[in-house]
Records
---
Amino acid sequence: MVNVGTDLFYDAAGNITQYDAISGDDTFLSYDARSNVQMITVGTSAGTTTPTAREQFWYDPNGQRYLGLETWDETGVQKQLVTVYLGDYEVTGPPTGVSGDVVERVSASAAVQRIKKLDAWGGNQISIFSRYLHRDHLGSVDAVTNASGAVLGEKTSFDPFGGRRESNWASDIDTASMSTLLANENSIYTRGFTDQGIWGQIYLSRRAEYGDGFIYLDVWGANA
């Protein structure tokens, strides 16, 4: 197991509830009665009101995620971002306190997404366009391009166990590349290893196993 010296804690159902890091923030996870992940918190405690990062999820009776709320610390200010999921359609608003656009996405196929950007205040359409998803043999997205073939944002790659690595496969993803990837994630593509991100589970790349569900999170093990 990588990161020897860290501790993992589990609930009675076998779900990981805490990742006690060697140093820095710990990660805390809570679940609903069906073992779908309800909240993931990175910070000093599960109940902290000023987390470094937090993800919250809501599910319909079939276990399909329909709402997500991201919270994070940005230079001492807590920001939030809401995403609504309805099958192949999802809509994300701009973060709180930020003048941005509402982004609507429709998955036309495994390789094509239709994107519409709307003015967050007036609801007026700003632009509508297609993005093309280039996948590896496991279905993970390595690159996103526009209609002209230009790569949008940071190219990415995943090792055989799901950890993010540099696009040239030379090493694990470095801090600069990860920062660029996360900064563009909501505007370009939000899925992770093998395109997970729909159901109420998490993938633990450093253990090379699924927890309860398929949410791929970039907080410990570079997974989101």
Note: The longest strand covers residues 125-135.
---
Amino acid sequence: MLRAVGAFCRGPGTFGRLLNNYGILPNKSNLHSASFSFRSRLWPLNVPTRNSSGGGATMRIKQTGFHNGKVYDEMHFFIMLGVVPLGLLTFLTNTFIGQAELVETPEDYEPRYWEYYKHPITRFIAKNLMFSPQQVYENHLAITKRHMDAKNLAIEDRWFQESELAKQDYRGWQFIPVNPAGVLRAHKDELLHEEMGHWFSR
């Protein structure tokens, strides 16, 4: 339809130029406009246009350079701080000190626990940074003893409650349960007054 209108405008020269001058019919160069009208612009006509390029229909999302630079800086910092010194220390230790070897020891000599390791770095870590096997064993015994005491107390408390239920007894004749918060607070206030009483008037 638009091609027919353009051909009609180009065909009759004088009539076409007259219509174009009054803005009734558009030229070929004006067909890309968003709207034009016939009959003194009473009826608007919307023309769909495509203003994009002919490239691909995908939009690539690229992360900012700030995060990349930050990651690279952190990697460089930790590599230079940890990997390089540890690698250099390991190389020098293996080169100049070397691993331990078995030798003849006196009969009255008792080796230390870190001497059972072969590498010098492992010996240093076991001697200065780790617990000895004796300490680990004693800690395990202490934890086991604590659990055994708690279990025995729970067994005694259960036996006590079952005995009260069986004999229909109660603990009123033994003691009167009270809240010791007031007594403890009064004792604390008394100690505070004894220490700082000469600074304040009573």
Note: Confidence is low (pLDDT under 50) at residues 1-9, 31-39.
---
Amino acid sequence: MTQKNGVSRVLVVGLVIVVLVAAIVSVSLLTRHPTPTTTPSSVSTTSSTTTTTSTTTTTSTTSLISVSNSSLVVEEGSQPDSLDPAVTFETPGWEVVDQVYQGLVAPNGTSVTTYVGVLAANWSVSSDGMTYTFYLRKGVHFSNGDPFNAYVEWFSVYRSLIMNQAPEFILGQNLAYTNGVNFTINASILNSINYFDPSPQNLSVMEYPYQSVQVIGPYTIAFHLGYGYNGDYPFSSFLATLTTPLSFAVDPRVVEEHGGVVANQTNAWMETHAVGTGAYELKSWIPGESVTLVKNPNYWGNNLPPSQWNYAIRPAIINTITIYYKSASARIADLKSGVAQMIEAPDTDYSVLKSIPGVNVTILPIIFGSSQNIFYVYMDPSFTPFQNLLVRKAISYAIDYQGLIKTVLDGLGVQYIGPVPPGFPYYHRATAGLQNYTYNPVKAAELLAQAGYQATLPNGTVLNPKGMPFPAVNFLYDSDSATQTYTAQIITQELQAIGIPAKPSPLTSQGYYGVIDATGNSTEYPMGLSYYSEDYTASIDYVTALVEDDMAGTSAYYNATVYNWTVQAAITSNPQLEAELFANITRAMYNQYWFIWLFVPYFLAIHTDNIAGIIPNPAGSAMGYFMFYSDVYFT
């Protein structure tokens, strides 16, 4: 499984220490896809629709008739980076956090554009798209018995913003701990409030209207957009950002008992422990070995009538989930022997996996591959030869895309045109009329010669022999990634064949990310492989990252017109306009050749035939393709 993203966006902001003035009435601080086709014989399914102002959500409700007391063994390649919702930024961490903690909303089954309530019973959106008001469920409590309410949610969101860890930008686009004028929340304030019996002074802070997160009542909370770095604009994918761990409910009493909130710092206890409102609770995490989850016996969803369940809040069926972290060969061996019922494995093992009796191996729709990785070649604009459009265009013709897919991915991948990833909303409309970049080494050599450089045809003929020899260029890739290693070896050979002396330049993952995530240009590695994977399931996530991030791994790309189109796409609620803007962005980037779009690998779902109940969604981190283990059962 992969990091949640290839190039990360981190907003670094300073905290202003403020002092609460006692006995205030109005606070003034010193600074401002299709649904599953099968259902278990022991389960009956009904449907209900919840409608609120500006919001309609369809939820499936499931009535459990009988269950099997059972244990599920899952095996993957990488362990969690953290169990703290404010910190984790990799798929294995989100996988565990999604089972133990809960947020206000979740994707609606297999949908990537609609949502169901989790801790929120329903919600409304203001006509200008700037305020989202959530009406919270009553009777929700953490596994230790502490109650959930609007005050707890207020704390949880501001905690993520103030801790300011790698995924903070997901919320920080639209929310901030300060209004920039007369209101600022800091760690001391968060640590001083009683969230289960707030004083009038506490309430005056949480109910202050001119802030990002406002408590309206004990079970009503409003999010006011416009205070984050996106500026005073609505954000059409705001609900998608709330499906990520950053806004999940965290017990303030537990945090306070284990060090409290500290600005710009992690909490060591929270990184290795978990107390949430979810259907599972953490039994153990043995670093480097396993995570074990068990049914939460005090789960609040147990008290709901089945008619009020949806897939995101129903009680768990399987008693114990144990996730082991092993090599690919060990995982496949355990699947064969029956030790494991679900495993994660690369596409290159597809044929082997398909030959195992009693095992279901499904190639998921390409949107699941896109949510994991879209690969491309980046080029540094400060490297003089790359400033020539003819050179960049020549490189696009020098690469055998279909050969890469066949050789590197065993044919299990697709070529694509970015930045909207294939399978995501608007992809086909964004790429209408465009053809994938094509392999034509003759054309590549001719363009390189036109650019003033010596070039070589496939038959060995040298074009423009009196031209400049192309300077040597380091081609960066992640040596810890088999996909990148194999791809880089092939591409550098293809570039060398036309007269570009590209040198394979491997770095381990840590060094690799240090280069591609660095702001600005990379003079040492002006060319290489990069990728992006979703932070939240929305096309704008990819477009924003690749258009607005001034990083080496995104070619330090900036175009004022494309940037303005991106801003408009982020704020519009008009699907037709959003599609047109994505098409404009796609065509502009296509013709500029700063990104050489390569391929998207397919993603495999692998489990024994007696596993059912999985509801695939690309937002899911469980095995990389579904949200909740609580829906899974044995047939």
Note: The chain has two domains: 43-325+606-634, 369-601.
---
Amino acid sequence: MTGSPLAAILRSVALRPRTPAELARELGSTPEALGGMLGTLHAGGYVQAAASGEGACACGPCSLKSLCRNAAQDVPPLHLLRLTPRGEAYLRRLGQLT
């Protein structure tokens, strides 16, 4: 895939919520190196924390509740990131999300 490093992060997070460590492994980087880019994406409203009851991650009626790492947690043990609607719209404009 081609594109910017920021778009590569968004594509990865679009597949499922990811931790910085998971992103680093997938993208061949380190969590420290990704820190600045993740901060930029978060500040721009492209990603957010994937926590129980936050945004579209509301565990009550969710059919994936049994698979979710955050379902029984008030504060997730891992810092998971997920796309926001703005992040999804950006990837759609690039033709990288259907």
Note: The chain has one domain: 5-93.
